[in-house]
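TA notes, week 10

Several of you asked for a full example with nothing omitted. So below is the full record: structure tokens for the whole chain, then the designed sequence directly under it. When grading your own attempts, check the secondary structure regions first.
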């Protein structure tokens, strides 16, 4: 599923921003773009895996100081010492006394007011920002999920209707086989006639080979399971992946056993719908 989430958090003098970008992927493919300690990287990955099961997820982390968090101060004692040393040297060399810029440029005169970075504060800010980003990402993916649910259920309804049509067509297969075999034998043997018992035996054998009752029962079960899973709130992408494969298997078997052009046409239509369903299922968490 696709989605985007951004989280910003401050902890002390640290501001962390975490951006999450997710696109469709069969499994969870996590790409972390951040210079962080291995221990923090593992914490980030653990949080993400607990919230996201599928998708190619890109994670970008940026750490910065809020405006005004840093500055410079003048060490007046160091400035006096530098000025005296420079003035003394200038007198000896017969040069003009040093100006303020030269004094300030001396080592130790200007000192940073930055406080040392606190690793714990940085980690806390990043983890908090990740929580906010994950919440945004999940909200966006949830909205997409509702749209996907409607699409998946629509495709399952179409397949159920086709299955019902095939079931109706299959009811007349035995009679169709008997008529075809009888006509064929009549053309071959002519007036010699056909033994009714033998004809019934051959028809029964052909009908057994063409029987698709078990396949239709399993197909109905798979469709019902897929419908239940699609309506559920838990992550269901992988389960639906499996059921789509099983539905395809039953359709293939029915198609190979088909003795009626109407059933063959229905199977072609069902496979077209199934392919659309397969594409949507790839987007499901």
């Amino acid at each position: 599923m696709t989605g985007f989430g951004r989280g910003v958090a401050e902890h002390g003098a640290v501001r962390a921003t975490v951006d999450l970008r997710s696109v469709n992927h069969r499994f969870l493919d996590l790409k972390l773009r951040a210079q962080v300690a291995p221990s923090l990287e593992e914490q980030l990955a653990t949080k993400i895996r607990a919230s996201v099961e599928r998708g190619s997820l890109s994670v970008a982390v940026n750490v910065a100081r809020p405006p005004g968090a840093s500055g410079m101060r003048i060490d007046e004692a160091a400035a006096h010492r530098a000025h005296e040393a420079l003035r003394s040297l200038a007198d000896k060399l017969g040069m003009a006394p040093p100006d303020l810029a030269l004094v300030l440029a001396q080592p130790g005169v200007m000192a940073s007011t930055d406080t040392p970075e606190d690793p714990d504060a940085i980690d806390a800010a990043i983890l908090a920002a990740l929580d906010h980003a994950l919440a945004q990402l999940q909200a966006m993916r949830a909205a997409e999920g509702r749209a996907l649910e409607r699409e998946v259920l629509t495709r399952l309804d179409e397949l159920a209707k086709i299955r019902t049509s095939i079931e109706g067509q299959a009811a007349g297969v035995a009679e169709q086989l008997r008529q075809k075999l009888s006509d064929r034998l009549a053309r071959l043997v002519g007036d010699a006639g056909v033994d009714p018992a033998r004809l019934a035996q051959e028809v029964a054998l052909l009908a057994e080979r063409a029987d698709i009752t078990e396949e239709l029962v399993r197909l109905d079960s798979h469709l019902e399971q897929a419908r239940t899973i699609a309506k559920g709130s838990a992550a269901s992408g992988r389960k639906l992946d499996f059921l789509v494969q099983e539905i395809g298997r039953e359709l293939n078997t029915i198609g190979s056993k088909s003795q009626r052009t109407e059933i063959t046409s229905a199977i072609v239509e069902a496979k077209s719908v199934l392919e659309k369903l397969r594409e949507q299922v790839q987007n499901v968490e």
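Strands lie at 3-11, 14-23, 28-33, 55-64, 72-74, 110-112. Use that as a sanity check on your answer.
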